[in-house]
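the two lines:
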Amino acid sequence: MAKKNVPGKEHLQRLNYLYQLATWHTWQPTHSLARLYAQSMHSVSTKTRSSILPSIKRTVCKKCHRIQIPGRTCHVVLSNKDTKKNGSNDRPKSTASHKDILEIHCTCGSIKRFPIGTNRDYTLAYEKPDALEEL
Amino acid sequence: MSNSLKSLDKKISSKKNVYRPVLDNPYTNESNLFPRVNDQALIWNLLQVNVLNKCKLLANIDQSEWPFKIYSGFNNVIAQITELDSSSKAYLFVCNRDPGISKVLLQQLPLLCFQKNVTVVQLPKGSFSVMSEALGYLKANDYIAQYSDGLLLLFDTPQLNKSFVTKLDTNVEPLSFPWLNPVYKEAKVKLFKSSKS
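prediction for all of em together
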């Protein structure tokens, strides 16, 4: 049975507040404040050793701390090494699909790469059913 | 080393569960982003009758002459949604329940569709194989476009069955992102269960 008392609960709520602020400011025309809040969120989580779910971390750029919103601060592309190397598009599906890489290009120029082709059913331990318990 | 019941008990007791607090956010969780479809079976049947079955029959005709405008393949769909203007209307069908569809791939889609007013329709489990077979008749030039990724973008054109469009509009709830409003929403703190010896 899970413990009811959670240490550092306030830190986690502070992280949540900073994330929401950063996202709301990203929705506005200027992103400078948003980046500041996202950077603060990162600093707080490392200082207090508080965990954030990978699904949240995926939405923040590691280099410029921008919240990744497709069409605004990033664009998403599915690429494949084989088709790039040969310049041909007629490669059979069976040989090439396992090399598919999802690339999230941030406006700062950094790229997040997820090799989804190797195992499309792959889920992290955090994302597995019954891995997270309610308080 | 003995293999008695006592020693085995000791081994088991030394391995205990550890609970680590973690911040959860329902608005970045892929499974919570897709809107609810009220009559999913009906919508899936209508999609098969009005679009997927016709793809097979129209295989020999040039795609520009088809009575509907559809796109598949992740890159194609993203490009079309990004270039969409405010006057055009589109529906994105997603097989998000099927195995073989990466959750990371789908995570960015609802937010993109929310910006461009595209209706996202999630399809029932088992729809991916039927959709892939039907979309195999699309003549895509790009390799990435050939692989459907469980995505189908359908544009609302005058030739499309009007009752199908009405059913889509009435049965699919609109996308909502409450965290984009300037109102603070408290997120749940959850416990991640792991074991430590």
